[in-house]
Amino acid sequence: MSSISQKPPRRSDLPDAEARHAVTRAVAGQSAAEALLEEEGVQLLFRPITWRDVAVGDTWTYGGYAPGWSWAKALVKFRRRPRRVETAVCVDRPGQAPELCGLILGRISNGHVVASIQLMSRAPAPNPLEGRFARVAVRYLEFCAEAEHCETVALLQPIPELVDYYKDLGFRRQYVKKGRIQRLERDLRDDLAATLGAQA
């Protein structure tokens, strides 16, 4: 791959790049929603994060504990890159406004190799996706990776209590720093090979 293709887009190209990748995220979200309706029995809506969403997200606490970041500041930072992982996860019930259940932000690497989730939070209880949000987030990431032709999916700084769960989902490659897991990865090519092997 040439070095030119790895350079960030020129400022004049950003609107077009933003529009292209917004369409890609929309396609990934629709595909994830269809898959999760069958797998989890719940109708989901994956849509762009709004400023109202981040205002709500910045009020979320869990047993008095608040995540160590500002969703408002994070959204500004991540939107500097058109190629990214971004969604508000909502439960979509007939006749009702979609219910915000969580927020996800991440990146697509310059070489379209890795799709990663860097920040995610679920809304506190009562939340219809409580106990399922991590799986929903991973499925959305998988569809983003497929849409962007990435080979690997990654979770950055996973919650320690969820590490074993993520490993059960195939995230078995880990990177540790100072005794803490900083990154979990799964190679999608291995998933494809396993699927083809099972079909043989």
Description:
This protein has 200 residues and is of the alpha+beta class. It has one domain (13-199): Aminopeptidase (3-Layer(aba) Sandwich), CATH 3.40.630. The chain is 38% helix and 24% strand. The protein has a seven-stranded mixed sheet, sandwiched between helices. The model is unreliable at 1-9 and 192-200 (pLDDT under 50). This is GNAT family N-acetyltransferase.
Strand content bin: 15-25%
Give me the CATH architecture, please. Answer: 3-Layer(aba) Sandwich
What is the residue-averaged pLDDT? 88
CATH fold node name: Aminopeptidase
Count of individual helical segments: 6
Helix content: 25-40%
Number of strands: 7
Low-confidence segments: 1-9, 192-200
Largest sheet: 7 strands, mixed
| Name of the CATH homologous superfamily | Gcn5-related N-acetyltransferase (GNAT)
CATH class: Alpha Beta
Tell me the overall shape.
globular
Along the chain, the helix and strand elements come as: HEHHEEEHEHEEH
- Give the class from helix and strand content and strand pairing: alpha+beta
For the structure shown, list the relevant keywords.
alpha+beta; seven-stranded mixed β-sheet; 6 helices; disordered N terminus; disordered C terminus
